[in-house]
Please model this.
Amino acid sequence: MHDLTPEFLQATLQAAQKAVEASGTLVREHWDKPRHIRHKKSPKDLVTETDLAVEALLRDLLPGLVPGSFFMGEEGSAGQGLDGLVWVVDPVDGTTNFAHGIPFVATSVALCHNGDPILALVNLPILGELFTAAKGCGTRLNGRPVHVSETPTLLEAVVATGFPYNIDPHLHNILRQLEQAMPATQGVRRPGAAALDLAYVACGRFDGFFEFSLNAWDTAAGILLITEAGGRVGRMAGNTAYTPGDPDILVSNGHLHEPLQALLTRAAQDA
Model:
């Protein structure tokens, strides 16, 4: 078993950053080329050759950085559990954006220890931004420390949300959430890549984020970015802790957590 010291985490993060930067180069190389798109479980659930190529590259590079670690990627090993040391990877978060030439595209990489993220990298290769965190060591954007916002009220807040591929079971709740959030906040945004949304909360661009039906690879890196940047991670209702893969998520700058929960609770009661 590895001794998960700050020195080990920082050294592994630096090595993982090189792998993620290489994957970003691959995304940029594919950006201006024709897309080869196929569908997975539904007409809305896309995968491109870029998703597969980036995952293959990271599968080759990451496990060797921590001997004995496993790899969970969206495109190839979704059944892998989170016991032990596991690299949890979304190669191209925002595949629909990528397919349409919209630059809100992220590669999300986390190293988890028994489900607890201890390293995080969220790369926005088209936008030129790389967010990194190691547990206990803070969050950085392109090497500079970042922190969640200090926005104190919902009326001053910009919050983000997302819409799952399997939207039908959640559609009424989502519409009620928007009906509550739009007049109560300064604005609601939906970029279409959860890893980007979480990173934007970590650096203070968004003040909160909530969504249904995200997978572990969507959130594992982003939640560590937020907690290490001073924010709060949980569920839409109550004080329940969030574990990657839970059916819903709410994150915030901390100041707005209870007000956002109250808003989402009202939406659920009216649904």
Notes: Residues 88 and 157 are 30 Å apart (CA to CA). The helical segments are 6-31, 49-61, 95-99, 171-184, 194-202, 216-228, 257-270. The chain has two domains: 6-146, 154-270. The chain has a mean pLDDT of 92.
